[in-house]
């Protein structure tokens, strides 16, 4: 049976984080608040847990799951290298609403879907999410909704869609107007904006020193 923890109450928050951490380590699913929308998360290095996440959403591996991290330093162990442009964007916008697509480290034994050797990384600006990520390490996290439905802006909205497929719901209050993260692909010769969201093109251009191009 799933349990919802009110993270505005310190005792409930700590109990929820403890339960969420043990659930993630045991291959289960949790819902957590982020600075954009609520997310459904699993251990990024547990392929069965990631498949369960996709199944809960009603989604296939053709739409790979992004990875959330709890610190800048975590990125170094997940990618082949961190180019200068990535460092500049991380320093400017992390934690926050910017996702970076980079070539993943070939030694990693994870299965996030059809990633073509890349990984989509973000560090969220939310204390509950950061506390959990720093406890359990990188998590595969997708928006907490079933395919075809709007992303959840509250833990209760997530629970209405995902139900008992998720063991733990961490309620960090409403996220406000749901705004997706901006996704920038840094795997090619020039930065490409795959999705514009919380960080504008103008802000990206200011940090990069070049206007990013559009691309899928």
UniProtKB/TrEMBL annotation:
<dbReference type="Pfam" id="PF01300">
    <property type="entry name" value="Sua5_yciO_yrdC"/>
</dbReference>
<protein>
    <recommendedName>
        <fullName>L-threonylcarbamoyladenylate synthase</fullName>
        <ecNumber>2.7.7.87</ecNumber>
    </recommendedName>
</protein>
<dbReference type="GO" id="GO:0005737">
    <property type="term" value="C:cytoplasm"/>
</dbReference>
<keyword id="KW-0963">Cytoplasm</keyword>
<dbReference type="GO" id="GO:0000049">
    <property type="term" value="F:tRNA binding"/>
</dbReference>
<dbReference type="InterPro" id="IPR017945">
    <property type="entry name" value="DHBP_synth_RibB-like_a/b_dom"/>
</dbReference>
<keyword id="KW-0808">Transferase</keyword>
<dbReference type="GO" id="GO:0008033">
    <property type="term" value="P:tRNA processing"/>
</dbReference>
<comment type="similarity">
    <text>Belongs to the SUA5 family.</text>
</comment>
<dbReference type="GO" id="GO:0061710">
    <property type="term" value="F:L-threonylcarbamoyladenylate synthase"/>
</dbReference>
<keyword id="KW-0547">Nucleotide-binding</keyword>
<dbReference type="GO" id="GO:0006450">
    <property type="term" value="P:regulation of translational fidelity"/>
</dbReference>
<keyword id="KW-0548">Nucleotidyltransferase</keyword>
<keyword id="KW-0067">ATP-binding</keyword>
<feature type="domain" description="YrdC-like">
    <location>
        <begin position="14"/>
        <end position="199"/>
    </location>
</feature>
<dbReference type="GO" id="GO:0005524">
    <property type="term" value="F:ATP binding"/>
</dbReference>
<dbReference type="InterPro" id="IPR006070">
    <property type="entry name" value="Sua5-like_dom"/>
</dbReference>
<dbReference type="GO" id="GO:0003725">
    <property type="term" value="F:double-stranded RNA binding"/>
</dbReference>
<keyword id="KW-0819">tRNA processing</keyword>
<dbReference type="InterPro" id="IPR050156">
    <property type="entry name" value="TC-AMP_synthase_SUA5"/>
</dbReference>
């Amino acid at each position: 049976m799933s349990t919802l923890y009110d993270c505005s109450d310190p005792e409930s928050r700590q109990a929820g984080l403890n339960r969420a951490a043990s659930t993630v380590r045991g291959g289960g699913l949790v819902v957590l608040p982020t600075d954009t929308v609520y997310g459904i998360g699993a251990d990024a290095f547990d392929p069965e847990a990631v498949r369960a996440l996709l199944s809960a959403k009603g989604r296939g591996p053709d739409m790979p799951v992004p990875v959330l991290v709890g610190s800048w330093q975590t990125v170094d162990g997940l990618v082949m290298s961190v180019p200068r442009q990535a460092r500049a964007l991380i320093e400017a916008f992390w934690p926050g609403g910017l996702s970076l697509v980079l070539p993943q480290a070939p030694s990693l034994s994870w299965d996030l879907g059809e990633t073509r050797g890349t990984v989509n990384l973000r560090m969220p600006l939310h204390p509950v999410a950061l506390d959990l990520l720093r406890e359990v390490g990188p998590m595969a996290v997708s928006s907490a909704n079933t395919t075809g439905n709007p992303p959840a802006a509250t833990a209760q909205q997530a629970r209405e869609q995902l139900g008992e497929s998720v063991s733990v719901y961490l309620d960090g209050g409403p996220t406000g107007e749901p705004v997706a993260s901006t996704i920038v692909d840094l795997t090619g010769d020039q930065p490409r904006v795959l999705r514009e969201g919380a960080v504008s093109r103008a802000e990206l251009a200011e940090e990069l020193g070049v206007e990013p191009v559009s691309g899928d």
